Every structure is written in C-alpha cells, then in structure tokens.
C-alpha cells in the first residue's frame, strides 16, 4: 500500500490549486473563511464556475458530464477546495440524486433531469427524514396514492418531512414515500420527485442554534405528482434510498475542512492571551490542541488508506462509518477549542469588537467571530448522514458480526 501521491496526482493537485487561485472569487472564499452567511446566489455562482470547467459532478461517469476522476483525484480536489475556503458543493442534486438517476432512472429521466442539475435549472433538496423516521428511516409515513384521471397517471401525496436542508431554496425535492402499507416496511416505499411549487406544498423554517436558516419542515397536503416522476419501480424505493446514502457519506469525514479549521484555531490560540502569555503556550490548552492534531494526522492516513484500497479495487465497508465517526468528532473538537479560545469574543454583537485594540484589548482575527456559531452548527455533524451511534451499530454488525 503506497500512501504517497504519484507525480501525476501531484500535478493534478497543482492544476486544482491554480484553478482555485484563478477562479474562486475572493468575495466567496472570504465569506467561507469568516463563517458568513452564503446566499443561494453565492452557492449557484460557485456551481456555475465549477460546471464551466466540467468539475461539478465529480461522482458522475464522463458520459453524463463527470470529469472521470479516480478516488484519489476526488480526494485531492475536495481537500484543496476546503483549504482554499471554497463554498461546498451543495450535495442534493449533484452528489445524491444524480448518481441515483444514473443507476435507477429511465432514459427519459436521465435526459431531462441530469443537465438541469448541472446547469442549475433545478435546485434539489432531500425529503427522507420525518418526525419518527430518522435513524429508523424505513418507518416513513408520508403517503402517495396512485390514481388515473382525465389529467393522467399520478400520485396524491400527504405527509410531512423534516430537517430538509436548504428546502427554502428548492425547486424540487426527492422523497421517500409510502406506496404500500400492507408490505414489510422496507418493501412499501417509493422514490418520488416532487415539484416544490405544486399546490399543497408548504415549507416552514427551523432556525438552528447558530441563528441560521439551514433546515426546514416540509408539509404535503393532497399534492399531485405525475407518475412519470417515480424513479425505479413502485415499492422498490428502499434500494434507491440505500444507494443514495453511500454517496451521502462520501467525504463526510471532511479532512480538508478540519485541516483548514486547525490552521485557524492555531492562529486564534497564538493571538489570545492567558495569564500574559499566548493561549497556545498554556499547557492544558496546548495538550488538547496537540491531541486533536494527532487525531487529524491519523485520520488523514486512514482516509488515504481507504482510498488506496478503493483504488486497488476494494469496496469501503465499515471504514466509511469509521471515517464518519472520527471525522465528525475531530471537526467538533476543533470548533469547540476555537470557541473556548475566543471566550466571550466568540460571538461579538459589537462588530468593532473584532478590531485590534478595541477598548484596549488585542482581539482575534476576523474569522474568530464565527467561532461560537461554528461550534453550535457543528453539533449537527454527529447526527446527520446517519447518526454516529447508528454508524457504530453498522461497524459492530460488519466487523464483529453482532
Ligand atoms: C442539520 C441537519 C440537517 C439535516 N438535513 C437533512 C435533509 O436535508 N434531509 C433529510 O431527509 N434529513 C436530514 N437530516 C436528518 C438526519 O438524517 C437525522 O436527524 C438523523 O438520521 C437522526 O434521526 P433523528 O433526528 O430522527 O433522531 P433519532 O433517530 O430519533 O435518534 C435520536 C438519538 O437516538 C440515537 N439512536 C436512534 N436509534 C438508535 C439505535 N438503534 N442504536 C443506538 N442509538 C440510536 C441516535 O443516534 C440519536 O442520538 C438532517 C439533520 C440535521 C441535524
């Protein structure tokens, strides 16, 4: 197993760096680095820049517009983007629905929907979770009843989804709906594409601890959906659902995000003072920083080991759950330390409080202002994409056979 990048891979890294230096607008990277709010227009702008270069749909085969990258190249690209503070690729259309359509969609569905994901005509969100169906996803209750009338073959959908990320911006939602209440619960689910502008769809915001509007509840009351929007076979949506989840956990370890956040943490700790000395020299704080940095180095190696195995023809199994658990724990610990390092200045309400010398105090760099918001927001990491407890169950089943 060789964990070093080949000369070709190093050349690819240089190409990605040059692209980011040239094309990533400073306005966007500043917002990401300082933890400012990204608008839908910001996210769309970055998608369009990547799409123009053919680098948006990194998990798609070349015939549908993917760049044809290896697992290592995807890893390098994602890490370089995180280090450059690029906005993340919004995953719902590109990284989640796209691969499902490519594997299970009809030719007509692929022809129609895939180009619209690439050019941003449709903004997608994910309608899996419901109150009472999160970890136990197969318990979804949102019901779709099929019927035919003068307007054609259709479903009528009633129910509720929750935690729908960026659903307030979405044109379309891909949903798990129950089409058969008699069958075993995994066997009565279908995968349906629903137009968010349909009469009967209502989106209500959920405001998170950091003050952001990131997630929503989505309600369906007698929503009419054309039957042609069914992906795969009726009652066989669980197969699509599981396939999509393997893509949802891709890069959830977020090594690049942690490396960038670690650099920011060190900068904050070097500036903040405790008992007249830089906080970075405080033995207790330095020990916690060292521990998380060592964990991050281990994590990088594990990530490369998994990628090397995939490049050699292997399939990641329990490893993707391990990466999810450790990666999210590390991200949470780094954001926790950054918040501690900033203390009361982690979330200033007086903007000038971040300026050096404000009221006689040397305060931190601008990005430290988001330290508390990041800390709160990162609580989600161990919950979404399948909670870390559920990942531990998966590991115990796959490795210990329990
Ligand atoms: C910020 C955020 C964004 C999200 N975005 C989306 C989205 O866009 N679309 C979408 O469909 N969903 C989304 N989710 C939902 C997410 O997938 C669920 O929150 C997650 O799967 C957990 O489900 P739950 O919230 O219902 O918690 P529950 O399943 O009720 O779990 C509660 C607690 O019990 C634990 N637990 C449950 N079952 C077991 C078990 N068998 N063994 C051990 N422990 C267990 C869990 O780990 C958790 O700690 C998002 C969630 C968050 C927080």
Automatic annotation (TrEMBL):
Identify the keywords attached in UniProt to this record, alphabetized: FAD, Flavoprotein, Oxidoreductase
Q: Which InterPro entries does this one have?
A: Acyl-CoA_Oxase/DH_mid-dom, Acyl-CoA_Oxase/DH_mid-dom_sf, AcylCo_DH-like_C, AcylCo_DH/oxidase_C, AcylCoA_DH/ox_N, AcylCoA_DH/ox_N_sf, AcylCoA_DH/oxidase_NM_dom_sf, Mycobact_Acyl-CoA_DH
Q: Which residues form the Acyl-CoA dehydrogenase/oxidase C-terminal domain?
A: 235-399
Q: Where is the Acyl-CoA dehydrogenase/oxidase N-terminal domain?
A: 6-120
Name its co-factor(s).
Answer: FAD
Pinpoint the Acyl-CoA oxidase/dehydrogenase middle domain residues: 125-223
Q: Which Pfam families does the record match to this protein?
A: Acyl-CoA_dh_1, Acyl-CoA_dh_M, Acyl-CoA_dh_N
Q: Does the keyword Flavoprotein apply?
A: yes
Query: What family does this belong to?
Result: Belongs to the acyl-CoA dehydrogenase family.
**Protein name in UniProt:** Acyl-CoA dehydrogenase family protein
Query: What species was this sequence derived from?
Result: Variovorax ginsengisoli
């Amino acid at each position: 197993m060789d964990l070093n990048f080949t000369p070709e891979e190093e050349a690819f890294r240089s190409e990605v760096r040059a692209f980011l230096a040239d094309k990533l607008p400073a306005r966007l990277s500043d917002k990401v680095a300082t933890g400012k709010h990204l608008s839908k227009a910001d996210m769309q702008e970055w998608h369009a820049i990547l799409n123009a270069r053919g680098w948006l749909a990194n998990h798609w085969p070349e015939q549908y517009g993917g760049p044809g990258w290896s697992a290592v190249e995807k890893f390098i690209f994602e890490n370089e983007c995180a280090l450059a503070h690029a906005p993340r690729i919004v995953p719902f259309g590109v990284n989640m629905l796209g691969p499902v359509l490519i594997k299970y969609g009809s030719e007509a569905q692929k022809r129609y929907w895939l180009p619209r994901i690439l050019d941003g005509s449709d903004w997608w969100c994910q309608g899996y979770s419901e109150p009472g169906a999160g970890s136990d996803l197969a318990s979804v209750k949102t019901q779709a009843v099929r019927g035919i009338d003068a307007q054609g073959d259709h479903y009528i959908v009633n129910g509720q989804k929750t935690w729908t990320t960026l659903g307030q911006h979405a044109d379309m939602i891909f949903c798990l709906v129950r089409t058969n209440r008699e069958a075993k619960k995994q066997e009565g689910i279908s995968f349906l594409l629903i137009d968010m502008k349909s009469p009967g769809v209502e989106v209500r915001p959920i405001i998170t601890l950091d003050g952001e509007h990131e997630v929503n509840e989505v309600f369906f009351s007698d929503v009419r959906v054309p039957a042609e929007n069914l992906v795969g076979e009726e009652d066989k949506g669980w197969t699509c659902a599981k396939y999509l989840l393997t893509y949802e956990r891709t890069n959830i370890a977020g090594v690049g995000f942690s490396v960038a956040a670690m650099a920011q943490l060190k900068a904050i700790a070097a500036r903040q003072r405790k008992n007249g000395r830089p906080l970075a020299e405080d033995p207790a704080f330095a020990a916690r920083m060292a521990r998380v940095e060592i964990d991050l180095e281990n994590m990088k190696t594990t990530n490369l080991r998994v990628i090397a195995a995939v490049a050699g023809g292997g399939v990641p199994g329990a490893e993707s759950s391990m990466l999810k658990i450790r990666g999210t724990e590390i991200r949470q610990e780094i954001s926790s330390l950054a918040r501690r390092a900033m203390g009361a200045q982690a979330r200033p309400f007086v903007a000038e409080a971040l300026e050096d010398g404000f009221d006689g105090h040397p305060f931190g760099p601008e990005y430290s202002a988001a330290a508390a918001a990041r800390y709160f927001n990162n609580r989600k990491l161990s919950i979404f994409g399948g909670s870390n407890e559920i990942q531990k169950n998966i590991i115990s089943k796959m490795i210990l056979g329990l």
